[in-house]
Model the fold of this input.
Amino acid sequence: MSRENLTGTTLAGYALQDMVGEGGTAVVYRAEHPTHGIAAVKVLKEKLRTDRTAVARFLREATYGTRVSHPNVVRTIEIGEAGPGVHFLAIEWALGELLEKYAKQHVPLPPEEVGEIIGQIGDAVYAVHAAGIIHRDLKPDNIMYDPASKRAKLLDFGIAAQSDQAPEERLTRAGFFVGTLMYVAPEALSGQLVTSAADQYSLATIAYYLLSGCLPYAGKSQREMFAQLLSQPPIPLNSARKGCTVPAPVEAVVMKALSRNPSDRYPDVVAFATALRACINAPTPDAGRTSLFSRVKSIIKRTDKG
Done:
């Protein structure tokens, strides 16, 4: 057993049952608490317990989670220190699996399912923005999804930022960025001030991926992807792969939210999600003609029987 694995021990009343994940700064356990029941417990890694910067970031993530209360955001249960430097964060144990895992097995997803997922996460991100926070790392790997209930929940505020921080504290130099390259907005790479519009771009990239099974840029390496993000428009959704045929209005909504200029996107994430669901759920002209044809056939049959 590694030194980082605390499975089988009890921490602040949480019986750590299984190690379910590990990142650069923390280890995540499935745990049971006599009062809170089943929970996910994130524990700062031992090697970072004396690192002031790592501790500050861990506590910042935990604090951001307590500021957002929404049915589509994983609920923060408790923040604590079980011993000197043993910082932990207990959060709701969400049913389902990471959307990344589900998507790999099922993309492209039916448009109606995509609209539902994006709608729920759009509402969640809007609540995050209303709390003065920019998530900065929206991606399928940071979304829990339960296919049975069709419920999606946002998690992980590990690199979130205050939306009202001074510009000099949040600007990045070209070549340095915060987030995941495949889902990051172009302005995050070029040193511009990152706003809530960057989260909208990332959410639109998720929608693009769920609808097509592809990403808006086809770079084969991180360097190539980086260069394309900085200099090229995204690939139109219906050109993402052979046989991709989403309705033109749906494509237009997604591509607007993927505009390189943040001011060309929707006013906020809810506006984008609402527009996407409206297009997906709108009846097509062909559907209307089919329905009319079916009614005429029914009338003819009844006439023939009479």
User: Anything to note?
Assistant: The longest strand covers residues 14-22. Residues 285-305 form the longest helix (21 residues). The two ends are 81 Å apart (CA to CA). Residues 167-175, 287-303 have pLDDT under 50 and may be disordered.
